[in-house]
Amino acid sequence: SDGAPGPGHWDADAAAGGLVDLAVPGGAFSGRRAPCLKNPVLGPGVLQAIRIFHTRQPSLAPIPCVPEYGGKVCLGLIPKEFFQFLYPKTGVRGPYVLGTGLILYSLSKEIYVITAETFSAISTIGLLIYVVKKYGASIGEFADKLSEQKIAQLEEVKQASIQQIQDAIDTEKSQQALVQKRHYLFDVQRNNIAMALELTYRERLHRVYREVKNRLDYHISVQNMMRRKEQEHMINWVEKHVVQSISAQQEKETIAKCIAGLKLLAKKAPSQPVL
Amino acid sequence: MASPVPVKEKKLMEVKLGELPGWILMRDFTPKGIAGAFQRGYYRYYNKYINVKKGGVAGISMVLAAYVLFNYCRSYKELKHERLRKYH
């Protein structure tokens, strides 16, 4: 329902926004609805993405390239268009005949007066023609080299800028590609976490084992100790009672018996050398 | 004249002889128009003969020749006295 030609929203919108598009003559003229308010649901950021720029042909652009050669000129003075202009009526020789006729006419009627300056003019022009004929090409090449240098410089800048932007694009693309590989990172993280969990679990398991073993060891050592104490106590008690039961008389008899036995032994082994 | 293109828009070469006075009168003679005409003429000459990659001597030589001619016309009045013959 937009009455204006479809593309080229930008011009009207710019005009509506207060900017004047100078590429289009009369670019600020009214008469077109600003399309920016067509869909108020979309935010401004989204609308920028779908706006179309500069698709209509502006009348002053594109700027034509600098032509390679200038307009053709004959004798260095008269443009070829003049010769083309006279060609239908007079043929190829027409302009030259016209030129000769004009020169003779001006000389004979003394519209051109021959004075001393004529000779200086002739020599000057002759010298100029000689210089142009002889050195024209080399001077042209020199000038071409200069302009080529300038163009090369500008081209370099342009290429550098393009390269920069291309590098930025590549970086962006590679970073976007990296996003696809994020899952490796997440896998590694998940592995780490799983290992940490496992580690903690085993550590705690070991600790539980140690604590339980500790408690059980305690009970065992308590039992052992009780056992030992009971044994010792019983042994002591038995010894004490045995010692008590040995009366004094029995003791004397026992000692006398031992002494007798020792004497017997001493008698039995007197031949044994004592070292 | 009922021509499909209005007279004002035509270029000089396309204007017929009868329409010439009307065409001349329709031109823009305000100072801005005259300045615009000079500018256009200058840029036409400049872009055709000078602002090219491989220009020749024609670009300046035409300007110098026009200058020579112009000065000759200016000083013809004094030069008339140096003529070699009185009657031609």
Describe what you observe in this structure.
The complex is a heterodimer of chains A (275) and B (88). Chain A is mainly α and 275 residues long. A two-stranded antiparallel ribbon of chain A has the order 1-2. The longest helix of chain B has 20 residues. The model of chain B has no long low-confidence stretch (mean pLDDT 82). Chain B has one domain. Chain B is extended and about 55 Å long. Chains A and B meet through helix 5 of A and helix 2 and helix 3 of B.
What's the layout of helices and strands?
The complex is a heterodimer of chains A (275) and B (88).
Chain A: H1 9-16, H2 44-50, E1 73-74, E2 78-79, H3 80-90, H4 94-108, H5 116-180, H6 182-245, H7 248-268
Antiparallel strand pairs in A: 1-2
Chain B: H1 20-26, H2 31-50, H3 58-74, H4 76-79
Short description:
The complex is a heterodimer of chains A (275) and B (88). With 275 residues, chain A is mostly helical. Chain A is built from seven helices and two strands.
